[in-house]
Design a protein that fits this description.
35% helix, alpha+beta, 301 residues, two-stranded antiparallel sheet, globular, five-stranded antiparallel beta sheet, single chain
Amino acid sequence: MSAQVAPGNKIPDYYAQKKSFNDALQKIVHDVNLDGTYDAGDDGMEKISFAVIDLNGRKPVLGGVNMDHFIYPASVYKMYVAMEILKQVSDGEYSLYQSYVVHEPNDVDRTSEISWDPRPLLRDGDTVTVDYLLDLMITRSDNSAANCMIDIAGRKNINQTMHENGWYGSEVTRKFLSRKLEDPGYDTIRSTVTSALHAADFMYKIYKNQLINPWVSQQLKVLLGRQLDTTKLSTGLPTNTMFYHKSGWWSYFTNDVGIVDDGRIRYIIALFSPITEDDVRPRFKELSKKVYELMQDLHGK
């Protein structure tokens, strides 16, 4: 395994790389039994995509395992949609508090991703604000809200912004609904994929207030900090640690990406796995715990 990336997926020069750091991350992946290839059903044999950015030195240090490998991100790619929505609001194209009417077939959810969240499921004809949809999409990972957000933002606009940031290959291609209900031209397109490298770099730009501009970065960080899913990498972190993140799961895939900050140690972690949520949760917890301990060892407890 290597931290090297394929042509066209170059590591930005604002990151340093250290063999000792990369070796330590590879050992963690091996120790928690995530270094294999896994049967992902129709997607064939798959492997994880994993990246960590150490933010505690003068220059961020990037390491990982298969970090340039593209894999299905499930709901993680909603953060890319949120970026474009906030960019358009920042540009004055509309307000966060502009009304929006939900229409079929976008209202796909029949159960809430977070069972204890009191907000009702969106239904055809509901009138809500852009801000409400944005919050639902990120904090509860609501698929109906995401479909509406993709319509508002426009996939071409989202992907133009992705390209401006160098994230080629991570384009948003699909809504969260069946292909037969997709818009013309998107019913036969490839599924959305991303890599740990792109997702971690996205989080780094938020951390630096450089994702579009400081307002967009901070708005998105606030949303990520209110993430309601705490069942994945969060479980391996101390309770006094803030985790600004976006998680996702579907079928064989379980993923989590975010910024870890305990007030003293800061880093970014991105893990995409082709393993069902029930099977991989203990390994997510152990990996998260070991990465946190590695940061403590590197920068003093």
